[in-house]
């Protein structure tokens, strides 16, 4: 492309000579003029013209910029803390205060807010990971975390969950780095220590609850030593399984143990059924004996009292009382005996013979 060139050092008008310009514009080189510095006055004049034209087109640019600045500062100074959160306000990286749920203000560009969830119960999984919560849920075992050695040198796969809450938000955020990883590592270490102190039978069966409690206590002590601000709510064993190579043998042992426990429960049930019956029967016999004893005592007391009354009356009138007692006694004795009564004319012709052990009645002349 041919560029017209001027012949003198005149102005920039249409008839005057032009400054040499090359591919680089005012910074380029002419055909015979060499390198020349830019014209600063022209550059400033062009910038001023551009600014004036821009102000004419947008007369309220200052107002717009001011409004945008106010909006940005307003939104930057306003924040909301959710009900399950607690706001931790930092100023130049230092914690200056905490804020509860609700709307709050902070100094924009100077203060920053972190919002950990302090009321929510968080959970971590050790020994497995949830692939799909389902339903039905699907899990993947993590053997390097789950395989543990028991106190009697057996290997088990322990999968468990740790539930925790954030008790001290500032300590949780700033005392340890990567809180979840630190908690997971401490949980695995605590479980390994507890499992390593117990035989395999305790871990697989009746000792599960105790293992959970001891692990939670040891984990809490560990996190307190870190100053983590974490409160361990619970440790829950999901699955405690033997290795696949010996799973069948462990199932047989578990089945035999269940049979033993079933037999023990049946024997305990029979014992609990039989002992109350025996106790009830014993109580019944004792009560009957006591009642018989009281009846005999009362009867003896009554007989003694009656005898004393008769004795008192006998002493007042001995002949009459003696006759009455004799009659009553004979009435009682004769009433139980076999007897024959003969009267009238038949008495003269009667042979005095009375066989023992026979009962007979002879009636003569209407007498018996």
Describe, in plain words, how this protein is organized in 3D.
- The structure is a single chain.
- The chain is of the alpha+beta class.
- Helix content is 47%, strand content 17%.
- Strands 6, 9, 10 and 11 form a four-stranded antiparallel β-sheet that branches. Strands 3-2-5 form a three-stranded antiparallel β-sheet, with no helix packed on it. Strands 1-4 form a two-stranded antiparallel ribbon.
- The chain starts with 39 loop residues before the first helix and ends in a 34-residue tail after the last helix.
Write the layout of secondary structure elements.
Elements: H1 40-57, H2 61-77, E1 78-81, E2 87-91, E3 94-99, E4 102-105, E5 111-114, E6 122-126, E7 128-132, E8 138-141, H3 143-146, E9 147-149, E10 155-166, H4 169-174, H5 179-195, H6 200-204, H7 208-226, E11 230-241, H8 247-316, H9 318-334
Descriptors:
four-stranded antiparallel beta sheet, 9 helices, three-stranded antiparallel beta sheet, 11 strands, alpha+beta, disordered C terminus, disordered N terminus, single chain, 368 residues, elongated
